[in-house]
């Protein structure tokens, strides 16, 4: 058959899987310029099960967002349209049920390997750009979707393809073309294009086996093709009968195509299997426990060098020792991660400390640039705190700092960040908040603190706090994190100069 005839039969096949209605509509409306965040959020919210999964994954380590997300509207706003589209498609495809499950084509194993492709692609992409991996994840997941379409549409012929591939070791794309008349890269590209998928997904599906075939000038798609191609090599290390072959190819091609150093390559290969397992749980997808790549390669090397039972036993013991060492190393890494979390917290107020504030502000500045959003910062300082300490003692001063922290934390949103900047000074980062809105927040905080009576062992205290507010639009203003802190500090200084217990806004005169 000609490949056009094969495509026609696939598109008309009753076995072709269908996407959930919400996912299908999302592809359509997300490509329109007039589509708003509210439109996307409303569409997803219509599917309660899908919404629950989206919120679960958005609040997980999969995205590692600094603040909890409570609604679909917040999820779309924080992640962006492309990311939410990729997430919904990933959830939808991993939930697809196939009717025909007999024969050589293993549908469960297909999706297991597809998820492995997606996770590997994400790990590779985050080494290039930590803020732009979402579309790569779904591109990795769907790179071989054409195999599924062909196995469902031509079950007998595809059985022949698989049998021939297992006996001859020939390339599956070549066998698909010989036996059926079209290969899975062509079918996957045409079907997803017919569904309205964006070019970054369809072109990646078409060229991921042979990235050198992509001759166009779109740098984003060219990078996506390279990343997804390399992710397929990693999956073959895990699942193929010849892991060493694909390991050597990944080492060589990742250096040639992406200029990866050995340290980065080792990091990706060390993390990928555990990341696959964690991601599978997030998507409620069952996956077989796989061995770490190091162990897979060790076993492959052992199999090649076995000369007698004694030698084989020695190697098994060596592998067991290495596996045990790896487990101990992972436990140590987990304990170190917990200690690192403690490093971010101020011991007195239990707020985030200065170091975490700086890293959070940098991350939010980058996110604001990406989303063209506004970011506001409030600096707050307890008035006459030295006099208070001198008069009532440092224990009373510590009590005031802890109580002021509690008052401010209660008044802020879950995804705003409150930190102890140093001494009696605090910093508040308000994401996607204008300066005018931030002034209202600061004024409410100032008033609530000024009117509050602090009770400690039957002793009553009253204090006031001064505030400085600044806003920045990183996509427009060429300001750094330190500039924004400096603006808010200047406004705070003006509040103190005028007697304290007031809010001052720093106006950016340079903005056009």
Strands ordered across the widest β-sheet: 2-3-1-6-7
Distance between the termini: 63 Å
Q: Report the biggest beta sheet as strand number plus sense, adding barrel if it closes.
A: 5 strands, mixed
Structural class: alpha+beta
Q: What is the CATH homology-level superfamily of the largest domain? A: Hypothetical protein af1432
Using only C-alpha atoms, the radius of gyration works out to: 28 Å
**What is the arithmetic mean of pLDDT?**
88
How big a fraction of the residues is strand? 5-15%
Number of domains: 4
Under CATH, the topology of the largest domain is which? Hypothetical protein af1432
CATH class type of the largest domain: Mainly Alpha
The CATH architecture category of the largest domain equals Orthogonal Bundle
Number of strands: 7
Q: How many helix segments?
A: 23
- Give the H and E element order: HHHHHHHHHHHHHHHHHHHEHHEEHEEEHE
Overall, the morphology is elongated
Helix content: 55-70%
């Amino acid at each position: 058959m000609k490949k056009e005839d094969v495509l026609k039969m696939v598109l008309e096949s009753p076995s072709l899987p269908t996407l959930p209605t919400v996912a299908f509509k999302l592809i359509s409306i997300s490509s329109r310029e007039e589509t708003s965040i509210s439109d996307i959020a409303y569409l997803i919210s219509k599917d309660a099960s899908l919404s629950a999964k989206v919120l679960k994954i958005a609040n997980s380590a999969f995205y590692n967002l600094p603040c909890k997300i409570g609604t679909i509207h917040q999820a779309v706003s924080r992640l962006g349209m492309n990311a939410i589209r990729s997430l919904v498609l990933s959830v939808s495809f991993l939930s697809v049920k196939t009717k025909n499950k007999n024969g050589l084509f293993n549908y469960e194993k297909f999706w297991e390997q597809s998820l492995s492709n997606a996770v590997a692609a994400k790990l590779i992409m985050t080494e290039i750009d930590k803020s732009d991996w979402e579309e790569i994840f779904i591109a990795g997941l769907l790179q071989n979707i054409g195999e599924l379409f062909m196995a469902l549409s031509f079950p007998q012929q595809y059985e022949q393809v698989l049998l021939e591939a297992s006996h001859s070791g020939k390339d599956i794309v070549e066998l698909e073309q010989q036996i059926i008349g079209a290969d899975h890269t062509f079918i996957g590209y045409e079907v997803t294009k017919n569904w309205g998928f964006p070019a970054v997904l369809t072109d990646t599906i078409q060229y991921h086996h042979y990235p050198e075939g992509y001759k166009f000038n779109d740098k984003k798609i060219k990078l996506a093709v390279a990343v997804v191609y390399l992710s397929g090599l990693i999956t073959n290390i895990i699942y193929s009968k010849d892991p060493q072959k694909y390991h050597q190819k990944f080492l060589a091609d990742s250096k040639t195509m992406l200029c990866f150093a050995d340290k980065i390559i080792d990091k990706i290969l060390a993390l990928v299997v555990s990341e696959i397992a964690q991601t599978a749980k997030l998507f409620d997808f069952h996956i077989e426990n796989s061995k770490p790549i190091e162990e897979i390669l060790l076993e492959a090397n052992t199999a090649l060098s076995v000369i007698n039972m004694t030698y084989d036993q020695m190697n098994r013991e060596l592998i067991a020792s290495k596996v045990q060492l790896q487990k101990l190393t992972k436990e140590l890494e987990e304990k170190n991660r917990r200690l690192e979390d403690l490093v971010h917290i101020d011991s007195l107020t239990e707020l985030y400390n200065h170091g975490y504030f700086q890293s959070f502000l940098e991350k939010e500045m980058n996110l604001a640039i990406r989303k063209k959003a506004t970011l506001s910062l409030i600096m707050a300082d307890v008035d006459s705190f030295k006099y208070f300490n001198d008069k009532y003692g440092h224990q009373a001063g510590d009590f005031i700092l802890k109580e002021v922290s509690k008052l401010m934390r209660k008044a802020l949103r879950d995804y705003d960040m409150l930190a102890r900047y140093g001494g009696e000074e605090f910093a508040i980062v308000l994401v996607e908040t204008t300066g005018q809105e931030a002034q209202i927040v600061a004024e409410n905080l100032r008033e609530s603190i000024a009117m509050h009576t602090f009770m400690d062992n039957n002793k009553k205290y009253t204090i006031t706090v001064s505030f400085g507010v600044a806003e920045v639009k990183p996509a427009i203003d060429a300001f750094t994190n330190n500039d924004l802190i400096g603006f808010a500090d200047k406004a705070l200084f003006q509040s103190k100069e005028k007697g304290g217990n007031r809010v001052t806004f720093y106006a950016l005169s340079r903005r056009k």
